[in-house]
Each structure stands twice: as structure tokens, then as C-alpha cells.
Amino acid sequence: MSEIAVVGIDCRLPGAPDTHALWQLLMNGDVANRVVPAERWDVDRVHSDQLRPGTMNTRFAHFIDDVDLFDHEFFGISPVEAAALDPQQRLVLQSAWRAIEDAGLDPRALAGTDAGVFVGMMASEWGAMNMIDYPNLTPQRGMGSGHAMVANRVSYHLNLTGPSVSVDTACSSSLTAVHLGCQALTCGDTDLVVAAGVNLMLSPGLSVFYTQAGLSAPDGRCKPFSADADGIGRGEGVGTVILRRLSDAIADRQPIYSVITGSATNQDGKSSGITAPNRWAQSKVMQRALDRAGVAAADVTFVEAHGTGTVLGDMIEANALGDLHRTGRNRPCLIGSIKGNIGHTEGTAGIAALIKTSLALSHRVLPPTVAPAGSNPALRLEQQGLALATNAIELGDEPVTAGVSSYGLGGSNVHVIMTSPPAAAVRPADGHNRVGVITISAHSPNALRRNAAAFADALDATDDVDVAAFCYSTNRVKSSLKHRFAAAGTRTELIRALHAYADAAPAEEPSRGRPGRLRVGLLCTGQGAQYPGMTRELYETCPPYRAHLARAAAAVDATLDTPSGLLNLMFSDDSAIHQTQYAQPALFAVSYALGAALLELGVKPAFLVGHSVGEFAAAALAEVLTLDEAARLVVARGHVMQQLSGGGAMTAVDVPADEVAALVAANPSCGLAAVNGPRSTVVSGPAEAVDRITGQLVARGAKASSLTVSHAFHSPLMAPAEQAFRDAVGEVFPRKATIPLVSTLHGRVIDGTEMDADYWAAQITSPVLFADAITAAPEPTHLIELGPRSTLLALARRCGIGSQIRTLATCAGPDDDGAGIARVAARLYADGLPTSTFGSLYDDDSLTLKRLPPYVFGDGTRFWRDADMAVSAVSAPVASARPDIDGAATTRTDTVAARVRRVIAEIGGYSPDEIEPNTLLSEDLGYDSLLQLRLVEQLRTEYPELEDASIRDLALTIKDVGDVVRYVEDRLVNATA
């Protein structure tokens, strides 16, 4: 068989609500049994210290807590349906989700794939109790009670199209499910398997049976292979593992707990009794698994045995193990059983044993088996080549081989051979405190805060974490649900942001991500934003920016005469960066690299605007010019301007352009350099003339601010540079823009083909019509400035862009911390940007999936045997009197809407307050075909005019509550027409 990797694990077992707690319980040697909780059954009614028919000999068993809690809203299940579901279905649903996440996968990303689901279970006491309650039997109770529905429920809600199988081989059910999953992976039926086991003790029936069969321990504890072994102690819980072919897991860089190298199953046949184990069948199934794994028994370091603690069962199993291990070994084969900690969990027993073994192989420590009295001498373990692992045992650094056994009541046996994960799959954290973008999503704002708190605690708990890899994992696993949170920064900054969000209701709720609604405008910064060392921190911390800036700098260096290259000049403290011949190419390279980094992260701009020299970066990003062509032009531009004699002045005034234009017209040597807003104009020209103009404006009450410049840009003084530039660059052949361009030369949208040599030459002396460009641009949801500091965002605000438009800077100037692009990505993700390309934010060695905190489901709703307990308090029903359809439209609409909401609420088990017009019937309320059918029937009862309405009408035309209301209203109006 193929080598199969165990890549994800989740469990809720007695005393252990998750895998971390289970490991602590195992290493501590804790035992999780307790008195039967009152909500399960009245133990006094069935308990007896004497063996009497219909009684059980113990008050104790191993239980998990809060099995009635279920986050039905997360899975889009109505309260009515949730109340009818076997709690085992609920447990497996939640556990499957968490296990898939633990495997470094987004469960929603599996939708439509051939992922398979194999679930082992032994009992369905919930179903037995519901199916004989004939007066209250509903379609929901029927669907919620069947064995097959446990696996099918997972496949349905996750939209998985591979094999979906519920397995019942009694106590070996869940390990049989694993075996079948491995076979499905090996033969190519699927590429991923969800294998699970579940068991709940809802009635004393099996406990009475075990007592009457002489199998039950009076203290309710399993004591595997122990001198005081006296029977089974029952347990319950759920466990789930995610399986993939090892080659696929390694290729996808998934974390790996362990590897399954062989598995086999067989049957006892006709032994001494149908409930009696068969030593020879057990020996054969173990040998067959070893053969398939290609290893000898002597290579096995330990076996996680079935180990129930019954005298007969332990004896037969020890003998069967001895058949394989009593010869040819240098040291004994260690044996143990998790049942000593959590009891015999029946349908969950095999998967619990596999999970313990996977954790042991991953941690490279074999936990102790609980046996206070020591091993049973009658088992002659030493002669069998065995030793009971009563202490924790280090497994060393070499590869370790282990076996897992599970034997079912009735004779169905399974054995699995496992090894420690290969060295190629073990990628320890490097501990570097780097920048990352953490993303978390949930189905509601409250759920998002719960999960943010869990992540804050997880990051706070250890310093030994690769923040980049941790964040990358959240981008892959935790990003696809409706409500989104994101933060960027170092580990300390992320913890602070997570705690702040989790601990206090934010002023603004996180966005429900809607990628189609993102309209991002990119602004490319003009001259004046440069400074020594600009974007050095960003270059060091942001891989996509680093890569694109290196490309842009190389394109510039092909024609720019610098002693040590553009990057060295930019990142030095040399004030030469302010010289026009260097400033313009540097700003071009920075803007281009920032924009290219955002494009690589999945941003699809609605438009690009470049301010003066910023238009070169915009043209390159829109592919009007190639990077090399744009670099050549901008270097030529900076060079010819540098050759002009210095002097001249530029002054910004808070006066409308038309008022300034009249004064400029009287001074032919001056020009309007830029119109940056309705009252934001820049005058450029000879210093004396500019001073004269600004003096006149100040005298009228205007404010003026002189700009620090080397030349009077965009004025008639630049005419010689315009001609020199045209001579230097020759012909330019622009292409049609792939991203809408808004020209600041023309103040309107252009298609890019106008950007020929004449365009770029005219740009040197013509005014920058930034205000017109912003006005002409499509309305964005976000404006992002691409430059070493933000100068244009404030100007855009003055141009009157709406306050609802988010403005984001990619770099904060000389004090920038290098996290600008990460923060932009975080904000865009929260507003709907997918994270599928966020891997480029990280260095290659951080593209490793890390274990993340499991999803924290809601605990606000309980569903137990009395279905009424599952339904929120419903307000008084709306009066059922027929509305006067001839009355006023407003009254009619309100009445119909209220009645329809009441019907929808009552059928689904909701409060009418939860039913809003935009509430989706299927996604939000869990209205499947059965509930939709009931809705149609009830609406016909409420409104006889709808007698010919059909469920097909609903399926084809109705999506939300408002649609139902409109449907009813329209039919009522037509009925009276």
C-alpha cells in the first residue's frame, strides 16, 4: 500500500477537550473516569453491587462534557434540525472541521473535491430513543438518527464528493475506518481522507450488557495488562484524523504527525464464542499488516494494544503479540493502551489509539500506560518478548516503527503499522521575530472575537514561533469565512492587536469579505517624497517588494550613471538622492515595486493615477511601457532636467486654479505647475515672479507655502528640458493599458496609447491636473499610495473623495518600520481580498504550514433530548387574521411580512427577531428541501390563494426572506386582480 501521512488530528476525549490536553493527560498518567452525570441516566435506578438482571455493577465511566452544545449557526443548520441530530453527528461535524484545519487546510477549499469520509461508530442510542417515539417522529429526527448519516453529514456540509462511509465493526469500527481510508487513498479513489470515530453513552444499555456478560469493571476503569485487571470501564468521545498520501503531504509542505505504512483487517471466524477473541486471527492480522509495511516484527518498537483490561482479552492479546515478538528481538516490544486513561471508548477506541500513537511518534516519547498494580505476571510478558510501558519512554532520534491494534466485539480485527514522520517533513521553527499578516475569519462577529482571543493566547504562550510561518498558515487555513480580522506586524504587535480586538467590542465591525466590491485605486507619488535610506526597512522585511525593487533598480541602472547602483544610493545616507537625476528614477523604482508587489498579492486595481514623474510607474504597471522602456525614459527625464541651471521657485497656495491662472497669465515666465485640489494650486517659475504672484494672493487672504525644489518644474523654465528629452528618447511606442489609467496631463481616463514621446515631453512643462484626474477616476473603495511616504492621499481628500473611502499608505517615510505592504494586505483582506497569493509576503523558508489553534465553536445553544430546549424563546405570534389585501399598501406589506417571518421562524425553530429581510433561507437559516417543503405547506395553510404554489417555485426564485415576502405579496395581489 501507499505510505499514508497523518497530517491532521482533532479529538474530544474524556479529560481532554483537544489534542494538547490529551497529550498532557497521557504524560501525566491521569485517569478521566467519574460518576455517571445525572443528565445521562439515573444511575441509582440501574446500579447494583450484586449481579442482577437489568442492572450494571458500576457508577463510573469516562465522559466528555457539554455534548449538548452545538454551534448550529456555523454549519447553517436550523435549530429544529439541530435538535433532531444525533449528538454524534454534531461531534463529528465539528471535529472534522478542526482536524482539517489542523492539517493546514481550509475546510471550505475542499468543497467539490473527492475527499472521502470514513466514520467508525458502534452505537446510536439517540436514534434508538427517537425512532420509537412515534408521535413525535419527524423527517428531521429520522435523518438525524441513522448510522450512515454521520459520515454523510460531513460530506454534505463540506461538499465533499468522495467516498462517504459509516463503519460499524463494534469496538474496531474507527480503526477499520482508517484502514478503509488508506485503501481509498492507495487505489486512487480519493486524495484526502477524513477518518473519524465517535461514541456517546446516552443510556445504560451497554453498561448493563457488559455487566451481565461479565465484562464490566466495578470501578469503571480499564486496567490494561495490569495485575488488577478486572474488566472494561466505558468511555466516550470523538477523534478525527486527516490522511493523505505521504508524497502529496510532503509536496504541499504539510505538517506530519506520523506515517501509516501498512494496515490489515480480518475476522476471528468461528472461535470459542462470538464474543471471544481469537489469538490466531489476531496474530495473522498483525503479520499481514507488517508484510504490507515491509517490516519485520523485530523492527517494531511499541504496540498500542487493544488492551481492554479483561482477563481473557488481555491474555489472548498478549499471546498473539508473543507469537510475533517472543523471538528475534534484542529488546522487548513495548506495549500499552490508552484505555487506561480514557476507558474503552468503543466506536472511538481505535482512532483514540491511533491518535495516541501519532502524538507519541511526533513528540518522540511513548507516554506511560496506567497500571498502578504493575503488569499481570500471568501474562508472562517477558517470555513473550513484551514489556508494559508503565513509564514515559524517550524514543530517540532514529526512525521508530509502531503498531496499533483494535479488536471488535464479534471478531473484526484491525492492525495498523506506523512510523515517525520522515526528516523531510520535520521543519522546526526558526524563532525569528519577523513581520507577517495574521488572518482570522468566523461566521459571526462574536465568533471572530472568540477565535481572536484563542490566537492571542497561542502566540502569547511561546516565544519559539516563526511568526512568518504562523501567519502564512493562517492565510492558508483561517481566511475564508464571512467575518474577517487581520493584523500585520511583529509577534508583539500581533498579540497586542489580537487582544485589543478580542477584549473590547471594536468601534467598527470587521467586514464581511466581498471581493467583488473591492475597487482599489493606486496613486504613484511624484517628486519631493524622496529621502536618504528610503524604503530600506520595507526592502528587508517584504519579499515581493524586495524582488520587484531589485528588478526596477536593475532596469534603471542600465542607463543611469551612478557609482554604486541605484539601490546602494537609495539605502545610503547620501543626500545626493535629492538630485533630480537620481530622485526621479528612484521614485519610479519605488512606486513600480510597491505596485507590482500589490499586484502579486492579488490586488486588481480599478485605476492608476501618477503624479508627474509618478506617471512613468503607472505606465509600467499598466503595461503601456515595459519596465525597461519606462526606466529608460525616466532616467532621460531626470538627466535633462539636472542639466538645467538651478533656480526658480514653486509655491503652493490655497486658491482655486482659475483665480491663480489670471495672475500667472500676466507673468509669462510662470506657470500653473499643479492643480491638486479645488483650493490647492502650485505656482512655478522664476523666484521673483512667483513671489510677486503669491504676494498678491496672500494680500487677498490666501495661505502660501514655499516648496523646497531644485528647479521650477512644470513651468516655462523647463522648455529646454522638454526639447532635450524629445531628442534623447526618440520614438516611443506605447501599448493599450491593461489597467485603467487616469492621466494627470489630460485630467481624464486614457487607454495608454496616447503615451508616446509627445505625451512625455509635454508632461515636463504642462501642469499636473491631479484634481481633475481624481474626479475623473471611478469611485474607489480604497486608495493606496505607492511611494516612500504619503503625499497624495491628503490631496485626494481635499479633492472631495468620500469619507467612506479607505486611504492606505505603503510606506510611512523616514520612520517606516517595513510593515506597510503587510498592513495594506491586512486591510484589504478584511475587506474582501482573497489570501490565495499571500504566500509571496514571506520568504521561502517560511512557507511551511504550522499547527494553529483549532476553531472555537460557539457555546450558546444546547440541544438535548427535549427538542423544546433547543428553540430560543419565541415572541408572541402575529395575529393570524387574514390581511385586508384591499387596504393600504403599507399596512398590507407590514402585515404579510410579519406573518411570513413568523412562519419561517416557527418552522426553523428561530425567534422572529432573528428573521430579517436579507436573511438567506439556506445559508443563514439552514432551510434544506425538507424545511422548504414545510414552508410551502404552511404558507398554503395561511394563504389559500397559494394553493398552487410549489417547492419548485421556492427553489428557483427565492433566496432570502424578503423574496418569500415578495412572492406571497405578488400572489395575493394577482389573486384579487
TrEMBL record:
GO biological process assignments: DIM/DIP cell wall layer assembly; fatty acid biosynthetic process
GO CC aspect terms? cytoplasm; plasma membrane
Q: Write the protein's name.
A: Polyketide synthase family protein
Domain of life according to the entry:
Bacteria
Keyword annotations: Multifunctional enzyme, Phosphopantetheine, Phosphoprotein, Transferase
Q: Which Pfam families does this chain map to? A: Acyl_transf_1, KAsynt_C_assoc, ketoacyl-synt, Ketoacyl-synt_C, PP-binding
User: Is Protein transport there in the keyword field?
Assistant: no
Q: Which InterPro entries does this chain map to? A: Ac_transferase_dom_sf, ACP-like_sf, Acyl_transferase_dom, Acyl_Trfase/lysoPLipase, Ketoacyl_synth_AS, Ketoacyl_synth_C, Ketoacyl_synth_N, Malonyl_transacylase_ACP-bd
* Species name: Mycolicibacterium rhodesiae (strain NBB3) (Mycobacterium rhodesiae)
